[in-house]
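Protein in question quoted in full.
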Amino acid sequence: QVQLVESGGGLVQAGGSLRLSCAASGRTFSYSLGWFRQAPGKEREFVAAITWSGGGSTYYADSVKGRFTISRDNVKNTVLLQMNSLKPEDTAVYYCAARTRRGEVVGITSYDYWGQGTQVTVSS
């Protein structure tokens, strides 16, 4: 089993920055770790992902490219999401997820373990 705990969410003004962290425990192997978000009335969507092996390839949704950066700490089993130039439309509950089987890196259905989520609110 894999346990994921997100932290770092909160309130921030538009244009500001916020850093989310996800601490993983239990099963150590994952093909990738990803961040997803869900706004009220909308479906959960892909934000960013990073592979756990090799140098750590990164993937981003077009809406966050150039603003968000995903990184990993293999020793601490932690993945970070640095969010800059935040916009009100970034407001959502952000979820950390782990993919322990083969599948699409950016596909929601490919991930089988999920955290409880952390609220990010961006004011205008």
In short: The chain has a mean pLDDT of 94. The first strand starts at residue 2 and ends at 7. The CA atoms of residues 18 and 83 lie 5 Å apart.
